[in-house]
Amino acid sequence: MAGLQTVQKIGPVLDLFTVQRPEWGVSEVAAAIDVPRSSAHALLASLVDTGLLQCRNRGRYRLGWRIVELGETLRSTVDVRSCSAPVLEELVENYGETTHLAIMERWSVLYVDKVIGTHNITVQGARVGTRLDAHSTAVGKVLLAQLDKTELQRYLTARPLRRLTPSTTTSPHALADALEMTRTAGVAVDMGETVSEVHCVAAPVRDDMGSVVAAVSISVPATRFASRRAQLERAVIAAANKITRSIAEAADIVPLESRNHPSLEPVGSCPRAS
């Protein structure tokens, strides 16, 4: 049981290390995850032994190079990012707006790829590696919509839904209704719910078994969104299907169509990333 408890604390410890705060001391970690200093020291030492952390001068800790190795291993074994990259670039080429690829990781949206738009005024978007609340983002709504009832109820009741802008949905009931609409339409919208001046549309990416594994989105300044919404929704759905088709073809399997998204039919394969 003690070993399991230690494993459960690894995630929260690694989550502490961010771009804004890349270095932590033992006492700081102990206070942040609410454990005795001795326990924090033992946990940090174990992570150093595995290469996930490195101990700097004065007992300060940073992420270790083992993280990079694991990242490269992930990139070589997961097709989603490589299949998505040329499609994200194609969307920017055709529409000039910033595109993102995101996954759900421990109840947050994790951005794993992006391509900056080409308009004179464009959305910079979330950096790769950024985590955002799922309920306030288009990609997050797409990913939440694929959860089963038990998982979704757990998400809705685990914590209050944060209000980030005046448009953010903070009612669990209203969010559940919005997710039902997302399942029916096959596309989700963020109407300035994370950043007031930014609107987004997103659609689900599926693996070769038909399960939603990621979401692709287009982010647009609010001033350009209303007149282009229908066009961008069609574009992001087509892009998501193109990635889905590419993932399935990489596995030599015809993708399974989702019962929840009968309108999302494959539109052809995407070019392989070089």
UniProtKB/TrEMBL annotation:
UniProt entry tagged with the keyword DNA-binding: yes
Domain of life: Bacteria
GO molecular function terms noted in the UniProt entry: DNA binding; DNA-binding transcription factor activity
Domain HTH iclR-type: 4-65
Assigned keywords, A-Z: DNA-binding, Transcription, Transcription regulation
The IclR-ED domain, residue ranges: 66-253
InterPro entries (alphabetical): GAF-like_dom_sf, HTH_MetabolicPath_Reg, Tscrpt_reg_IclR_C, Tscrpt_reg_IclR_N, WH-like_DNA-bd_sf, WH_DNA-bd_sf
Gene3D superfamilies for the chain: 3.30.450.40, Winged helix-like DNA-binding domain superfamily/Winged helix DNA-binding domain
GO biological process: negative regulation of DNA-templated transcription
Pfam families: HTH_IclR, IclR_C
PROSITE patterns, alphabetized: HTH_ICLR, ICLR_ED
UniProt-recorded name of the protein: IclR family transcriptional regulator
Source organism: Rhodococcus pyridinivorans KG-16
